[in-house]
Amino acid sequence: MKILYSKLNSLLPTHSSRESLALPDQIDEAINYIKTLEAKLKESEVKKESLLVGRKRSQRNLNLESTSTQIEIHEMGSALEVVLVSGSDNQFVFFEVLRIIQEEGADVISAKFSVSGDTTYNVINAEIGESMFIFGAAKITERLKRFVSGSSSDLELQPELWDFEAWDF
């Protein structure tokens, strides 16, 4: 029994005063230490559970956000910057935005992306040609916003309205 008490005592945090305690007091110290560890374990389990619940909520919010695509378009002279935020499962949106930009006659200079969870962030930099500088950015912006908003409107931009060369200024 003395060897077992000694082993029990060796498993507890070292205190020089404990060795001088009587055997029943050493056992009481061990019991108190075990109860403290149990309380810490319960606290840790509660904290872990709350973190998991919080993670599930944020994942759910991230999934809700990833289903909706957001776009920001910044015009700076002849430069056009398109910031696209979409779900990582919506890669076709990125390719469609690139197609629209190129279809409207702008040159894509760079396209960068990063992924965070289920969300993809794209930044596309394009250059608008001088021949379409006046109305080009507005037309591209309108088409991109219409595409991202999912508008099924039959009212398309009529090319002749945007062909400013045909206008008499």
UniProtKB/TrEMBL annotation:
The keyword Nucleus applies. Its main location: nucleus. It is found in: Nucleus. One of its GO terms (molecular function) is DNA-binding transcription factor activity, RNA polymerase II-specific. InterPro entries: HLH_DNA-bd_sf (IPR036638), MASH1/Ascl1a-like (IPR015660). One of its GO terms (cellular component) is RNA polymerase II transcription regulator complex. Keywords: Nucleus, Transcription, Transcription regulation. PANTHER family: ACHAETE-SCUTE TRANSCRIPTION FACTOR-RELATED (PTHR13935), BHLH DOMAIN-CONTAINING PROTEIN (PTHR13935:SF63). This is Uncharacterized protein. It comes from Rhamnella rubrinervis. The lineage of its organism: Eukaryota, Viridiplantae, Streptophyta, Embryophyta, Tracheophyta.
